[in-house]
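Re: Re: ligand-bound prediction request (bumping)

Still looking for help on this. To restate: I need the protein modeled with D-ribose bound, output as structure tokens. Inputs repeated here so nobody has to scroll up.
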Amino acid sequence: MGEQKKQIAMGCDHAAFRLKEIVKAYLLENGWQVEDAGTFGEQSVDYPDFGMKVAGLVSGGTIDKGILLCGTGLGMSMVANRFPGVRAALCHDLFAAIMSRRHNDANILVLGGRVVGDVLALEIVKTWLNTDFEGGRHQARLDKFDRI
Ligand code: RB5
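Reply:
Sorry for the wait, this slipped through. Here it is.
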């Protein structure tokens, strides 16, 4: 029996379609199974329609990680963080990518296609995927989210 592939969901709007394709190609080359919720071109679309697909998959437990991209990353973050159990982190530097995993156990990485260059975006993705949650006192803090 073959090894189970690591699964990740992705979604974007027109403003980040190009970057989504670059990140997706990296993930596929590195053994990830990508559930691509679209969009699939540069025609103008509404980011909530795609953010909610990915956030819904993560929130419902179908897939445990996601990557969302829009122009700034702001809209996708706002949409995704309305879903129970989703901890979406907008990261435009490596420190944020590391800390969003170590301390916040972020389960969705958000990127702004009009903010970061392709090379930095890929480094952020690699770093985010390779950093573990530290648990302990940070878990106790995350537990408080559910009481809000
Ligand atoms: C689209 O023009 C833009 O508003 C969207 O990609 C995103 O940046 C919203 O937060």
